[in-house]
Sequence to fold (163 residues):
Amino acid sequence: DRPASATNRSVRGHWEADTVVGKQGKACLVTLVDRKSRYLLGGKAANKTAATVNKVMCEALSGQPHLSVTPDRGKEFSKHAQLSKELKRVTFYFPAPHHPWERGTNENTNGLLREFFPKGKDLTDTPEEYIQRKYHELNLRPRKCLGYKTPYEVYFSKVLHLA
Fold:
């Protein structure tokens, strides 16, 4: 039921959201990926509760265009109505159960993050600055699906000279 602009990736501001768990019951990463540009936002949440995940999402999306968010169906996104109210006008769309391909951009990005944050690694003592550096690194990685532009270049409509 997402708008056509989210489905055809024509407009910035349609986000896919998820969490990346290191060690069970400990800190996790919150990932928000723009559908058009594949630009990654987010940060570390102290735990995988709805309140802490909402806080990270609110901070990450503040000042960014946010038309819609498509998270997975996890309990950590159960307070989406509160977040929608805080961000003013953001609509949440939930995929059908067991349909991760409906958020494929986010699933792919989470796979790329596993290069830096393997499963089972306790993220509690990982500094936020390190996490943001790795997010930035991924935002500067050229993607074939973007015509070998970086997510940063597409999101901000700027040309980088990386070579």
